[in-house]
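pls ignore typos typing on phone
GLP + seq
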Amino acid sequence: MTNPDFRIFPSASATTDAVAAHLAARLAAQPAIRLGLATGNTFVPVYAALVEHYRAGGLSFAQACSFNLDEYVGLPPGHVASFRAYMQSHLFDHVDLPEGHGHLPAVEGDIELACRNYEAAIAAAGGIDLQLLGIGRNGHIGFNEPGSAFDSRTRQVDLTPSTQEANKADFPAGETVPPTAVTMGIGTILEAREIVLVAIGATKAEALQTAFRGKQTPACPASALQMHAKVLVFCDEAAASLVRAD
Ligand code: GLP
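k done
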């Protein structure tokens, strides 16, 4: 296959439906799949459609497990804007993924130790079969902001002001976005056997072009994906506009 394998759809909903169908097919083919999961607005309709597949019958998460890309540091447990709360409300609460099989980075106590343990847990599970990824407007993947090393591992990172601004809407009025988070590293992400990156809307067009048509540089973290053998990019026409113009 060509890298990346672009799958371009006429609308946002056609894109997210196709991603959900791909995930459902992969889960059906490999019930004990180890999923790498992502958050963000892009994945709200993806998980909703995946839950529909589950409700339609014939799909089970009972043998699966998942590892999320990232989590904010400093939010009280259960905070509405935490990625744990997002995963519970958009996916985990609605499917038969066993309790304890949906992992997110730990963000309390000794964070360095927790990061090493997260890497060890992924390795002990046998590595990630399919990693879902969104893309930040500045090309970030997970919370690997521009400048992140391509061999970086799970660690605590500072969020750029632009990322904090972009995610502000997820927080109750008057609350600020935490300045730091724990994220899988780019090196961690690159070890997944398959990567499915999803980009919706014109605000992602430049990031997609820089990531896949520009040169590989830590200034655009997603450009690291050029060195991965199996990357599928699901996007709508608007996000694909600059990639297509090439
Ligand atoms: C967030 C997440 C990323 C996500 C990106 C885009 O900050 N940490 O994993 O891909 O921003 O989010 P959205 O889908 O809301 O545009």
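The beta strands are 5-9, 34-37, 65-68, 70-72, 102-103, 130-133, 155-158, 180-183, 194-199, 231-236. The first helix runs from residue 12 to 29. more later
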